[in-house]
Design a protein that fits this description.
The complex is a heterodimer of chains A (about 475) and B (about 300). Chain A has helices at about 5-25, 30-50, 55-75, 85-110, 120-130, 150-155, 155-160, 165-170, 170-180, 195-205, 210-215, 220-240, 245-250, 255-265, 275-295, 300-305, 310-320, 320-325, 340-345, 355-370, 370-385, 390-415, 420-430, 435-475. Chain A is mainly α. The longest helix of chain A has about 45 residues, at about 435-475. Chain B is about 30% helix and about 35% strand. Chain B contains 5 helices and 12 strands. Chains A and B meet through helix 4, helix 5, helix 10, helix 21 and helix 24 of A and helix 1 and helix 2 of B.
């Protein structure tokens, strides 16, 4: 017999708990950013409970009590939010209405298909089932692999049982579309129709339905990196260029809190997959590089000090998984089984002859995205010239994209597995993780240009109206 | 009035008279930005629209499919009954299985899958006394060619020749039973002593087996060496990982090829109790004897329930 309350409770838990947790922490931005942050924080708390071998019911109980406690405490001191204008409502309604169809399609695809693809089944579903049994970390399957995705997947098992794994897996397409919706916050309020339009365009262009629905974690790395990158882009857009103003800006209480949150969101990518740690390092490094290069070297130490809240959450989050492994006496150097070793990475430069096998994959990857990459490039140049506030984000995103591609290539120069097999099974998925940079590039450049275009058209309209009025006045006088 | 054609025309003329004053600041930029936006839209919109329209069509079809059937039916279709992962067959066999914390050995015609993840409960142990085969024919119990090894490296030390050979199995084989050695000049002019060592992989130096092989003089054609005891659980979910043979010969190497033979399924000591198409259940002879001597044994009910072939 179909028990209706089970999926309802599972969905309520998936949707409401993260929102309540985020509300309890008084996160300032829109619902999408709040929900995502709450979901990541909830997942992290489960990982901590698992890592410290706190019994599963106790861990879940602590999270529920903590969430409700924080919510009740914050409810009494909730800040008044600036109400949405009619234009903003129209923009949000357009975004949500249009995005709802591909989102529903992806969720239906997840609910329809059982987990089948090899790694999704033998690695990530196996981990979710082992987590459901709360096996100690050292007894987990593929124990070196982080477990944020399986934690979120498993959380629905409590209501539906593992036989209905499809309901828990629906979290992955939801995460993708929530990330897309959260891009509205990149340019801040007021929300514009142009931003809504560009989000739809960019999010649909890199949407790979199979990747987000199959249970593979590469799309989750893309979403996690994309979320962190969008927050860093927002920080770069909103930060003043002048050094003293920048330091003052970072010193404000609200900004310090924001830096704490961005640090957490950037670090949490390392809890998704081992490559997530690299993405986290690339994002942090590129952000620092862009910020420091746009200021005078004499201010670098002060800027680093001002960014301390970011590192206060980033560093503990990014080292959390290796720390848990060490706590359980698991060898952290074993990356993907025997696939890599420190020596194989250091000796990668000796494998130059591998380029002949790797290059066709790089070419095929770039050719498949040629149109999108060219549009991003041309749009970046135009936006760089016309929209000064988008310069630092554009440099940041291209740096991340290029470094990620270099990282993917390095992986295959240093792999100890059979190169042809490794390339055939992993290149596409690894390279796909950097798709967030293209989404953000389209979004930042096109929205920036559209905003300028709208402003210019408004100026011309004003001029036209003034001319018309003057002509009318002249006619009336004559 | 501004609505009359002549005054409207005046306004347009006045607007364009004033426009040059704005052109340096707005006009050129507006034209350029408009062009850029239009070009980006032209490039990106078709792709986005295609993704959108296909997802709309899919949403309708998927919605219908989700509403019309249960997830269990879709699992059965995806994981197969007596094919693919054998989900239906194994689930039906496990209905009368006497243990809830363990599962039988499950073998496939290509490579093993962790089917236990799909079964209800948490079955951590494997009963070595019960074997379920999915998509396995009689041929899979017999010896067959597993791989041809390729020579990768040759070196000489103190009059001894060391050669390194690699081979991949790709699929799972439970037994390695024999190797065939092909020598260059044949018939062999003199007897040869060959030391053959099998190593797990390039990154794991575990020695899986080591054999001293004496090839008699006059050997023509390949020399077949039957392993004194077959190597059990020889190849399991290895994909493209290389096995390594290290071959040591006292003279200059004339070994030209090595062929590896084995069987996909090790059926030694098992008796088939149930068969459907290419799926079967077999139990260890010891278990069968025990059940025969004690009809109240929990396994007796299981064997009686699944049995559909005459027992020896």
């Amino acid at each position: 017999m179909f028990r209706f309350h089970e999926p309802v409770m599972a969905l309520l838990q998936m949707v409401c708990l993260p929102l309540l947790l985020a509300r309890g922490l008084r996160l300032p931005e829109g619902w999408a950013s709040r929900w995502y942050t709450g979901a990541m924080l909830g997942g992290l708390l489960i990982i901590v409970g698992h890592g410290l071998q706190i019994p599963q019911p106790v861990t879940f109980g602590i999270i529920v009590v903590l969430t409700l406690g924080l919510y009740v405490r914050a409810k009494n001191t909730m800040e008044e939010r600036c109400p949405l204008t009619t234009d903003e409502r129209v923009s949000l309604a357009l975004l949500i209405t249009v995005l709802a169809i591909p989102a529903a399609s992806a969720v239906l695809r997840t609910v329809h298909d059982p987990v089948l693809h090899w790694d999704a089944f033998v690695i990530w579903f196996a981990k979710a089932r082992a987590l459901d049994q709360w096996l100690p970390v050292h007894q987990m399957p593929h124990r070196n692999y982080p477990e944020l995705g399986p934690v979120l997947w498993m959380s629905a098992f409590k209501w539906m049982g593992p036989a209905q794994e499809n309901v828990g897996r629906a979290i992955f397409p939801i995460l993708y579309f929530v990330w897309a919706a959260s891009l509205m916050d990149v340019f801040g309020r007021p929300y514009s129709l142009s931003a809504a339009f560009t989000i739809l365009l960019s999010a649909l262009l890199v949407l790979d339905v199979q990747a987000v629905t199959s249970g593979y974690q590469d799309a989750f790395v893309l979403v996690g990196s994309g979320f962190a990158a969008s927050k860093l882009v927002r920080l770069l857009i909103s930060s003043p260029r002048e050094t003293s103003s920048l330091l003052q800006h970072f010193g404000e209480a609200a900004q310090r809190k924001e830096l704490l949150r961005i640090g957490f969101l950037t670090g949490v990518i390392g809890l998704i997959k081992q490559e997530g740690t690299v993405c986290s390092l690339l994002l942090t490094g590129s952000f620092l590089l862009v910020l420091l290069l746009s200021t005078h070297p004499s201010a670098w130490a002060k800027i680093a000090r001002a960014l301390l809240p970011f590192f206060c959450t980033w560093l503990p989050t990014v080292v959390m998984w290796p720390a848990i492994l060490i706590l359980h006496q698991v060898d952290v150097r074993a990356i993907q089984g025997d696939g890599f070793s420190v020596r194989s990475v250091l000796n990668a430069y000796q494998q130059v002859d591998r380029w002949s096998l790797i290059s066709p994959y790089v070419t095929a990857y770039l050719e498949a995205r040629l149109s999108l990459t060219v549009v991003c490039g041309a749009g970046s140049v135009a936006s760089f010239i016309v929209v000064p506030s988008s310069r630092r984000p554009i440099v940041f995103l291209w740096t991340v994209f290029a470094l990620h591609l270099a990282f993917v290539i390095l992986v295959f120069f240093s792999t100890q597995a059979d190169l042809s097999w490794h390339l055939a099974t992993a290149f596409q998925r690894l390279a796909q993780q950097a798709g967030f940079a293209l989404v953000l590039l389209v979004f930042v450049t096109l929205t920036g240009l559209l905003r300028y275009w709208v402003a210019d058209v408004r100026t011309l309209t004003t001029l036209w109206r003034a001319t018309l009025e003057r002509t009318n006045n002249d006619a009336t006088r004559s | 009035m501004c609505g009359s054609p002549s005054e409207f025309g005046c306004a347009i003329a006045a607007f364009f008279r004033q426009l040059p004053a704005f052109l340096p600041s707005i006009g050129r930029r507006l034209v350029a930005v408009t062009g850029m936006i239009a070009w980006m839209g032209y490039q990106l919109l078709p792709g986005a629209w295609a993704a959108y329209s296909s997802s709309t069509a899919q949403a309708v079809a998927l919605g219908r499919s989700v509403a019309s059937g249960s997830f269990e039916e879709r699992r059965m279709k995806a994981y197969g009954d007596c094919g693919k992962m054998g989900y239906g067959y194994v689930t039906s066999i496990l209905h009368s299985y006497p243990r809830t914390d363990s599962q039988p050995i499950i073998r496939y015609d290509d490579y093993d899958r962790p089917l236990g993840l799909l079964l209800p409960g948490w079955r951590t142990n494997v009963d070595e006394s019960v074997l379920i085969g999915i998509g396995i024919s009689e041929r899979d119990f017999r010896e067959r060619l597993v791989a041809n090894a390729q020579r990768r490296h040759l070196s000489r030390q103190n009059g001894t020749t060391l050669t390194r050979w690699t081979f991949q199995t790709v699929r799972d084989y439970q037994l390695m039973s024999r190797v065939e050695l092909f020598f260059g000049p044949h018939p062999l002019p003199a007897a040869r002593a060959v030391e053959l060592t099998l190593i797990e992989s390039p990154t794991r130096n575990n020695v899986l087996g080591s054999w001293s092989i004496q090839v008699p003089a006059g050997q023509s054609g390949p020399y077949s060496f039957v392993l004194p005891s077959p190597l059990r659980n020889f190849s399991k979910t290895r994909g493209a990982t290389d096995f390594i043979f290290v071959v040591e010969e006292r003279e200059a190497s004339s070994l030209e090829n090595i062929r590896v033979y084995g069987a996909k399924v090790d059926g030694t000591g098992f008796v088939t109790v149930s068969r459907r198409e290419n799926c079967f259940v077999a139990v260890q002879q010891d278990l069968l004897s025990r059940v025969r001597s004690n009809p109240h044994d929990p396994w007796a009910h299981f064997i009686e329930t699944v049995r559909n072939v005459p027992l020896p």
